């Protein structure tokens, strides 16, 4: 059975007199830092000179260089993009870590794949909200919280979990529930989910459906609505009440098609490929490729990003969304 933590399991005293440095002020950084501050914690921001620096100051935070913020903090939450964390850690964080400090992550990649190897005398903790940053902030302001995962990789202080739960409560997560996991489980399932289902799987499913209709002579605009736009309505229903509620809400004609056609599209071959994808995540092949890609200055990544932008569905979508002024940017 899974272990869950709630408000009643939190001892905020453990953070008394402590300073939290949130390193990075992007999607997760801005939301976690603001939630922690509103929860009464002492928060400072560590950044490079850049766009976020101004934003963090405008939001009323004390902003320091990454090294300076680290040297002032008891808890250092690293919310830089995963692919720059290792370098920043080596050059700015590690040399400035206070004795007995705790380092925090919101994703396990760099610890699990050994890109960051902290000294034995610090706590290494993950608190990973299960939602994008703007939602972490919005839901907190509304008085609730986005659920999170917690994992302890290293417990040097003997208090790592208490500190982790206090942090999780500060971002609002214990209002919803915090699930205990490991760095390995979070990293591997996160990578698999985004590649096979959420991002990779869904993007290709949408494109393949769109292309099939357009190649058969249907209007690209109509194909766009059917294969991309309406996906949100379906996913919202799943999010609210699972597959059953989605199927309850659609027509019986659509439900009959769901049962009869779905398995012809996502079949045993798809699942066999998913297993290979998972194996390559588990054995480090995917991580190695992504690290090397970054070291090569992202040659293949940049080319692919450009090619994807040129896809007809993106061109058509841009025009159609201009007609739909109610869709917020
Ligand atoms: P973002 O890309 O949104 O933010 C990055 C921040 O880091 C920006 O403030 C940027 O500042 C700063 N930054 C970038 N490079 C450097 C550098 N070399 N030195 C100092 N500051 C730098 O990151 P995310 O919030 O998306 O991701 C942070 C972590 O959270 C990752 O581990 C990610 O896996 C995890 N996570 C993210 C989720 C999400 O919804 N996005 C969900 C759950 C976990 P500048 O303006 O100067 O570029
Ligand atoms: Mg991810
Ligand atoms: Mg329809």
TrEMBL record:
Binding residues annotated for substrate, in chain numbering: 251
Residues covered by the KARI N-terminal Rossmann domain: 2-181
Catalytic activity reported: (2R,3R)-2,3-dihydroxy-3-methylpentanoate + NADP(+) = (S)-2-ethyl-2-hydroxy-3-oxobutanoate + NADPH + H(+); (2R)-2,3-dihydroxy-3-methylbutanoate + NADP(+) = (2S)-2-acetolactate + NADPH + H(+)
UniProt KW 4Fe-4S keyword: no
Record: residues binding Mg(2+) 2: 190, 226, 230
Catalytic site positions: 107
EC assignment: 1.1.1.86
Amino-acid biosynthesis found in the keyword field: yes
Function: Involved in the biosynthesis of branched-chain amino acids (BCAA). Catalyzes an alkyl-migration followed by a ketol-acid reduction of (S)-2-acetolactate (S2AL) to yield (R)-2,3-dihydroxy-isovalerate. In the isomerase reaction, S2AL is rearranged via a Mg-dependent methyl migration to produce 3-hydroxy-3-methyl-2-ketobutyrate (HMKB). In the reductase reaction, this 2-ketoacid undergoes a metal-dependent reduction by NADPH to yield (R)-2,3-dihydroxy-isovalerate.
Protein known as: Ketol-acid reductoisomerase (NADP(+))
Originating gene: ilvC
